[in-house]
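User: I'm preparing a small set of examples for a lab meeting where we compare how different chains pack in three dimensions. I only have the primary sequence for this one, and I'd like the structure in token form so I can line it up with the others. Please keep the answer compact; I'll paste it straight into my notes.
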Amino acid sequence: MPKFILLFLILFAFSGLLIPVNTIYAKSAQDTLTVHTVWVTGNNSCYHNDVQRMNEFNKEIIVKYLLAYGLDFFYYPPTCMTESQYRSYTSPDYTDLVIVVYNQNIGRDILHARNIGGFFEWSNTSNKNALTIETCECMSSNFNDSVWVLSHELAHFALYYLGYDRDIFEGYVHAVQSRYYSYCPDGDTRDSRCDGLWEKIKGYSRDYTVMKVYPGATSVKPPQAKYVNYVGTQNELVQSLEKKINSQSSSPQQYPVFTSQQKQILTKKIDLASESILKIKEGLNESWNYVMDARKNYHSDIAKFHVDKAFDNYNNLYYQRNNIEKDLNSLVSNYLGLEKSVNSYKTTHYDDYNRKLDQFLSQTNKIGYDMKYISQELDYAKKAEDETRKTVPNSDNKQCFLFWCI
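Assistant: Understood. Below is the structure token output for the 406-residue chain.
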């Protein structure tokens, strides 16, 4: 074979391997959404396995999932570093989103020990001029597959970046999450109720189950390309700073009602309270079915007495749950109204909202605990009915008066 033909074939094959990367790298970090993945290891240095897993998460999951949302973006090569190195990490210029993935050695201590699978920090609390996602490669019975958790956080970001309201970029994602955890435990998607909650991303050696892309999102254009605080020439930066200084000198200083860190804490507590209320609702629905079955099948006086007590307990907890849900919705509505507000004086709204949310969490925990009394009364009823059927002839499913039994 002539040498120039062989060289052409080699170059053609090699260029084919580079097409997916060049498609993204051809863009500019200055005017395109820019992402940087950071793999943080608990090892003394980045081992070969760390680098392999970092590349797998970045190329096979992060890049492909963001592309599934139709996002136009540039990404810096992923970086692996130790925990001590990460403490002094500064994101590359023009980075809009930093995705931190902890390896198993430290992810469980940093995230899972705080009852967090991962999070998307959509209000920037760092000085890196970037939004942040933190997650872990860890497997957990509480947080399911690590790839699913990562896709959950990426979905938050993608919908936020595309300009959707909070009830979508936060509420929709958590609704899908709740249904997935309820109907598709450990990633088992055979239940028909799992349909529409998940999809597959094809990887090099296996397929990954990820959260379903929000319908219609791929055709939405983001309201702005960048999220870094400032991209401009030095002269423009000076002019911007001078304008800011002049405006501040002529008006009183403004303080946010909530700091970014306070918003993050309150948002997590709101999510926990909402999820607790949803779980209580599911538990009460199941208890209702048991109470109705007992009312239908138990006929002895003692059994009926305990069934009535179970019924009263159910009604009491049902109304408690409804009242908590109404109060929580009202609190969240008020919070959202204040979330982006500023004042010319420092306020203490955070302490009040934090205390009320703690009360909601305490109340939902108590309801969850008190639900056991429904089961307890139904157990007493069953035992009483069983004893009656042993000692009274024709007592099972029959009621007799004189010589007539029905």
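A couple of notes for your slides: The radius of gyration is 29 Å. Residues 252 and 344 are 6 Å apart (CA to CA).

User: Perfect, thanks.
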